[in-house]
Structures are given as structure tokens and as C-alpha cells.
Amino acid sequence: MPQLSAGDTAWVLASAALVLLMTPGLALFYGGMVRAKGVLNMLMMNFAAIGVVSILWVLYGYSLAFSKDVGGGLIGGLGDFGLEGLIGEKSLSGTIPTTVFVGFQAMFAIITVALISGAIADRTKFSAWIVFIVAWATIVYFPVAHWVFFFDNGNGGWIADKLKALDFAGGTAVHINAGAAGLALALVLGRRVGWRRDPMRPHNLPLVLLGAGLLWFGWFGFNAGSALAANGTAGVAFINTQVATAAALLAWILVEKIRDGKPTTLGAASGAVAGLVAITPACASVTPLGAILVGLAAGMLCALAVGLKTKFGFDDSLDVVGVHLVGGLAGTLIIGFVASAAAPAGVDGLFYGGGFDQLWRQVVAAVAVLAYSFGLTFVIGKVIDKTMGFRISEDDEVSGIDLTEHAETAYDFSTIGGGSRTHGLSRSAAVRPEHGARVVTSPEPAHESAPASTPGQAPEATSEDSGRDSAQGEEDGPADAPAEQKEGSWTR
User: Fold this and answer.
1) 418 pLDDT more than 60
2) CA 486 from chain center: how many Å?
3) Residues with Cβ < 8 Å from 426, sequence gap 6 or more?
4) Structural contact between residues 351 and 335, judged by C-beta atoms closer than 8 angstroms
5) How many angstroms separate the CA atoms of 378 and 188, rounded?
6) Which domains does the chain have, with CATH numbers?
7) pTM, entire model
8) What is the pLDDT of residues 437-448, one digit of tens each?
9) Which of 6, 150, 237, 460 could cross-link 283 (Cys pair, CB 3.0–4.6 Å)?
10) Dist. CA 115–CA 19, nearest whole Å
């Protein structure tokens, strides 16, 4: 009979708080990467995920994901609706109160939904996003969480208890799931106005690095906290998370140095996130040396994968596909090669004499989650688009989604550079009055061609090779820009 452990309870509570911090960190990470006229909307999309998913989780999300299986490993029942039966002192999940486990897993649901927002930045109706959160969390995330995270002595989720694929902290349920959904929505909504024509550079790179730092910090709760105990497994997950992230950061900027001539701050931030993504499923399955290999592979693969959107013509605004889908796939599949019985999971991969037994399980799990998420997300997106409309109008997009959706701007551009620059706001765009204020109009568009001295601005570029929306910079910049640019540098 399990006994309540005060130490385990304290660790999981702290881990839950760390994972919650990841969503504001993600908001800053994404917010710095969008243009100045869309940063508030990106922050709002992430914070809306916190609000909506928290309520859904308490009402029925936890029950669908973690109550007794009612569908052959596919879905839980509604026996824990509202959590009323779980709040007693004797209700335990292992050595921690069930309510602590509920709170910890709620943070996973929140961050998964928030990750999707980066694929559809700058063009999504906020009201449609709220509806999407409800539909996607209910139809996609809660069932997939049941597949991957619910263990019940062979009667739990089909990936966890029947297939026995290894996913310690959510490479499939969180990252492949969100990445596939991001790809589907990018296809449903289409490209941003001016994509590959107008500059769409990150407007504030220090904000990106701040967000990446908060993500890195919070990810220790995400991975080490998934041990659900203050024990050796948590320690292994902790150190593996650190070294894999460090290796991926170095691998990404090395690719940039070889390909583009210079490493970038956005590359360092993105490399770190790619490493965090890839080690998520593998952090209890590999040794620290294996974790370094996971990080190196993820950093290189994701640095190359972000170029897929320009080659295939889909506008994944902030590289959700290139980092989270590809990183999640890399981390999930590499377990089949470098898993070691010396790690807490106790399974050998192909390179350690385990043959293909674990590899095929990892492949099936990854493909199943990818296909399920992509297919249903595409349908959900199409239904929303055909009924209430998923995308703002072109005029609103050009004017700036912060103004048109929220009647706010992040910065007072009239105080910058003599007050003449407005960062893409149209003269004809009506600013919605706030609390009864008069409607005003804004000056002619500047098409984001701010000079290099604009705070946080990334350099110009022309090469499509790096994939970070480099093609968008082909006609970028002021008229007196130098004729030749450094080949291989990029803009988003």
C-alpha cells in the first residue's frame, strides 16, 4: 500500500509550478519572434490557453485522460468529472496526493495547446482560437494523453500499457502532437500577407532569449518532475535534460556557422528549445552520453528542418514544425537506437544489443500520434474556418493584429525615431476605441522596413538555405541597402 511522501509531494508541486512558468516563457519566446505589431496577440494566445485549458482539465479533461479506461486503451471515462471524488486526503497517485498529480498534468495540457499558436501567428481570429482550444483539447489532446501517460497494469492507454513505447515526459503527447497540429493549421489558414515578400523579422531578440531561458528553467520540472518522486530517476532526467539542451544549442549554431558564416542569437535560442524537445521522451531511457547524442542530433536536424517551409511553401510562422514536430520525432525515434538498460527505463536500444524491438514500438507510437493529431486538427480547423472564420481579414492583418483584435499596441511608436515610423499600420485602418475613446487613424504603412538600429532587429538576408523565412528578406530593407548581403543569413 503506497504511503504519502512529503518529499515527493513537495517536488511534484514545485515541478508543476515550473511547468506552468513554461507557458509565459513560451509567450515571450514567441512574442519576440513575431513582428512588433503582433506581439500582444501572441502573448494573449498563450495566456488564453492557460485560462481555457485549466477549466476544461478540472471539468472533464483529467477524467478523459486518467480515469479508468473505457475504450480499449483509447479514452478514459467521466467518472472523475469535476474532480469531486479526488480531493480527499486518502486519494493518492503513487506517493503523492491525486490532486497534486492532477495539477502537474494540467500544466502539460496547457503548454501543448500553447505550442500550436506559433504556427499561426499574426493572422488568427482570437475568438476562433478560443473555440479551437476547446475543440482541440477535447478531441485531440485528452485522448492522446490517455494513450501515452495512463498506466494501469496493462489496462491503461494503448501506447503506454499495450504497445509499451517509451515516452517519459511527452515527446509524442506534447511535441509531436502540437507540431502536427501546427502544420495542419498552417495549411488551413494559409500564408501571412506578404510572406516571402515583406520582412517578417523577429522584432525583439532579447525577448526571445529571455523566453528561451524561462523554458529551459521550467523544463527541469517538465522532465525531472515526470518521475513523480524525488529520487534517482528525477536526477537522471535532470542531468540528461541539461546536457542534451547544451549539445543541441552548440549543434545548431555550428550548423549556422558552417552554412551562413555566423552563429545567431535566435539560432542559440532555437537550438536550446530543440534539445529540450528531443530529450523530453528520452530523458529516463538514455545515459548522459546518450543524451549528448540526442541533443547533437536534434540540434542539427532541426536547424536543417526549419528550411522545409520555404521549400514546400507552407507558412509555419515560428517554426513549430521544424522544432517541435521534427524534434519530437527525433527524440522519440532515437530511443530505439541509444536507449540503455543502465538508464532508469531499463531497456536496451539497437546500439546496445536490444535489436529492433524497441525501435518499432517507437515508430508506431510516433506515427500514430502524428497522423491522429494532423488529421483531426485539419478537420477542426476547416470546420471553424467555414463556420465562424479562422483568419482575420487582409486589411486587419496589414494594420496589425494587436490593434484589430485587441485595440492595443505593445509599443508607442510615435516616441521612437522622431515619431514617423508605425511598423506597418495602415492610414485607413480604424483603431478600435477603448472604453469610449474616439476612433483614430494611423499613418501610412512602413512595411516593417525599420532601420538596423531598431531594438532587437535581426540582420537582413537573402538566402533560402537557412530556412528561417530567409526568402522574406529578398525585397526587404530600406532603398539604400547594400546590393550584396551576406549569403545564408536569414530573417523570419
Assistant:
1) no
2) 30
3) 395, 398, 399, 442, 444, 445
4) no
5) 7
6) 6-387 (1.10.3430.10)
7) 0.86
8) 433 444 433 333
9) 237
10) 13
